[in-house]
Design goal:
Blueprint lengths: L9 H9 L1 E5 L3 H13 L3 E5 L24 H12 L4 E5 L10 H4 L4 E4 L4 H14 L3 E7 L2 E7 L20 H5 L5 H16 L21 H14 L8 H7 L4 H17 L29 H4 L11 H22 L9 H17 L7 H8 L7 H19 L7 E5 L10 E5 L15 E6 L6 H12 L5 E5 L4 E4 L24 E6 L4 E9 L9 E4 L85 H7 L13
Parallel strand pairs: 1-2, 1-4, 2-3, 4-5, 9-13
Antiparallel strand pairs: 5-6, 6-7, 7-8, 9-14, 10-11, 10-12, 12-13
Helix pairs in contact: 2-3, 2-15, 7-13, 12-13, 13-14
């Protein structure tokens, strides 16, 4: 144990013992980290986490046991860590780090902050607070077998927000309801169906064919349906909700199956224009269901002996669906509206079965329950060993900082495949701050492109200031005029909420002075008008004004033939578990720094890493290795199912 006298030099040992550190997060990485720091000799620690312990945490968050389920993570982690080091002083906060009481004064009380978070909003907030308090921050994240650790120092290194992060892909309603082409489309549809039948029904989550799909414009079926809806709106015919109809038929699995996987599919086929360039779906009959998975499913997955890894045939899906509906029907009768939970077996089986039946209908590769759980829950299954490795790297960087060796701090990437020197832990030098960063620049400013005639003040506050710019309690006024548009004082500017930006005389090039008192953050926002945005987005936020210019036409790249079973490419952000879905684009480009599953330009599908004995951290790279820029590019990966996840 490093806390034994003589392991460190006296000056470093004293710095470790005397320094007060803040640990944000007590989950997968946080448990490993807390154990590491008390065994390293840290004595004065505060840990904060808002979450309580769930049974699904117990396979990797080893400070917790079965009797702790439902209790505070931070408090249980404190008790467990004290058993390792009874002499340590550990203060636990069961709270959100984003609350006002954990402001600038709170952060200034620490010599060092170690992040073990699982969501981007909190990461952004801690990043800004550490910049404002001018204390070092060691940031970390894991995604399955991938991981990363980096050090953030005001005015010396990039901050967490210096480089734009990719946002989760959003899907148009007509794609979900009419023309799915990826597994995630069917999974989203199945979750919507769960809510329509058993949860809090949302009109925006309708699962019936979308008659207003622009691609189907002019189809006789669509026009007939529109006229029918108009008649119903006049009151001649009462339109029944999906749930009311399901209740009338007693939640009969056969009738539900017939409607959603036969009648609705036949209706979609009548919308001829949808299928002029697509492979049409195949309706299914309850009395004649395939007993083997679709041909696009790999035989290894179809024949797996592990229940969670097995891909069900349509017949098996029907059986699982019947069992799940019976259980959910009884639960709904007792509790009322249900909330979908990936750890609730009937709910998970319902979504897995419905999604796989729909995948079969649209000739999309089917998925196992394990895959569906990962995608539907927006997670990549956490790996305990990844958390342990990354927690160790966090402590190594923290020790360098306390030993006055900040110049030796590195960004550490944990990869799935060894590089040519058989290393899976690769380091690179820390990057200097991005001069165009709208968070850590000397005079932060940002450009926002939007339609000022249709954007209301409330939309600007919620979607841009709080959403894209991650402010917690923003204030905004027109620079030079002193007109307050948004106030963090409750009710002070409520009368402005429904007014449009143009109503305040804002035009192309207008400037708003915005600030967040809690984050000690001020920002100039330059507004640029656009009647219509590219790619159907509502706004564009960027620190680089050049990115507001229309994209130049690029030469056509050679593409592989796409089918209904193909997946879109989307980078996995190794920093996120909970991802905010936004209609707007918060950045003009993708993340160039996040380490992904690609190690050396070869496809990395198998998670196993051979030669584990050769794992070590490299202080410097030799000429045999790739440059830092090449490494960044090679570490980019493609998420097969468009799901962003993290521990």
């Amino acid at each position: 144990m490093a806390q034994v006298a003589g392991v460190f030099e006296d000056t470093l040992q004293k710095a470790i013992t005397d320094c007060k550190i803040l640990v944000v997060g007590a989950g997968g990485i946080g448990c490993e980290l807390l154990k590491n720091i008390v065994l390293t000799g840290f004595k004065n620690i505060e840990v904060i986490d808002l979450d309580t312990i769930d049974v699904s945490n117990l396979n990797r968050q080893f400070l917790f046991q079965k009797q702790h389920v439902g209790q505070s993570k931070s408090k249980c982690a404190r008790e467990a860590a004290l058993r390792f080091a009874p002499g340590a002083k550990i203060v636990a906060h069961h709270d959100s780090i984003m609350k006002a009481e954990y402001g600038l004064g709170f952060f200034k009380g620490f010599a060092l902050c170690l992040n073990a978070l699982d969501n981007r909003a909190a990461r952004n907030h801690v990043n800004r607070m550490c910049l404002a308090a001018n204390i070092p921050l060691v940031e970390s994240g894991t995604a399955g077998y991938l991981g990363q650790v980096t050090v953030i120092r005001k005015s010396k290194t990039e901050c967490y927000e210096c480089q734009p992060k990719p946002h989760q892909k959003t899907f148009p309603g007509c794609t979900i309801r009419n023309t799915p082409s990826e597994p995630i489309h069917c999974i989203v549809w199945a979750k919507h169906l769960f809510n329509q039948l058993f949860g809090e029904a949302d009109p925006d989550e309708d699962v019936s064919p979308d008659t207003e799909d622009p691609e189907a414009a002019g189809d006789a079926a669509g026009e007939a349906a529109s006229k029918e809806d108009a008649a119903k709106a006049d009151g001649n015919v009462e339109r029944k909700s999906t749930r009311a109809w399901a209740q009338e038929c007693g939640y009969s699995t056969q009738k539900l199956f017939q409607k959603f996987f036969n009648d609705d599919i036949k209706y979609l086929l009548s919308m001829d224009k949808l299928w002029s360039k697509r492979r049409p779906p195949t309706p299914l009959d309850w009395d004649c269901l395939p007993s083997t998975p679709t041909a696009t499913t790999e035989s290894q997955e179809a024949n797996s002996n592990l229940a969670d890894q097995k891909v069900w045939s349509v017949a098996e899906c029907a059986n699982q669906l019947d069992t799940a509906i019976l259980a959910l029907k009884d639960l709904f009768a007792k509790q009322g509206d249900l909330v979908w939970d990936k750890d609730d077996l009937p709910a998970l089986n319902f979504v897995t079965a419905c999604a796989n039946v729909r995948m079969h209908i649209f000739n999309i590769k089917q998925k196992s329950r394990f895959d569906v759980k990962s995608m539907a829950g927006n997670i990549i299954p956490a790996i305990a060993t990844t958390n342990a490795v990354i927690a160790g790297c966090i402590v190594m960087e923290a020790i360098k900082i306390l030993n006055n060796q900040e110049d030796k701090c590195k960004t550490v990437y944990l990869r799935t495949h060894p590089n040519p020197r058989k290393k899976i832990l690769v380091t690179e030098a820390l990057e200097p701050p991005n001069p165009k960063c709208y968070v850590c620049a000397e005079k932060p400013e940002v450009n926002v492109k939007l339609n000022m005639e249709t954007f209301t003040i409330k939309m600007f506050e919620e979607r841009i200031l709080k959403g894209a710019l991650n402010m917690v309690a923003p204030d905004a006024e027109i620079e030079g005029k002193g007109v307050i548009l948004i106030s963090s004082e409750e009710g002070e500017t409520e009368c402005n909420n429904d007014k449009f930006l143009k109503d305040f005389g804002l035009v192309d090039g207008s400037v708003l002075a915005c600030d967040d008192f809690l984050q000690n953050y001020t920002l100039k926002v330059y507004l640029w008008h656009a009647d219509k945005m590219e790619d159907g987005t509502e706004f564009l936020v960027t620190g680089d004004k050049d990115q507001l210019q229309p994209k130049e036409d690029e030469p056509e790249k050679e593409k592989k033939e796409d089918t209904n079973g193909s997946s879109s490419d989307m980078a996995i952000d190794v920093d996120d578990d909970v991802v905010e879905v936004s209609n707007g684009s918060a950045n003009g480009s993708g993340d160039r720094k996040r380490p992904l599953e690609e190690g050396n330009g070869t496809a990395a599908k198998k998670p196993r890493v051979e030669g584990a004995d050769d794992v070590e951290i490299m202080d410097e790279k030799t000429s045999e290795e790739k440059s830092a820029e090449d490494l960044k590019k090679s570490l980019k990966d493609k998420s097969e199912d468009g799901v962003v996840c993290i521990e």
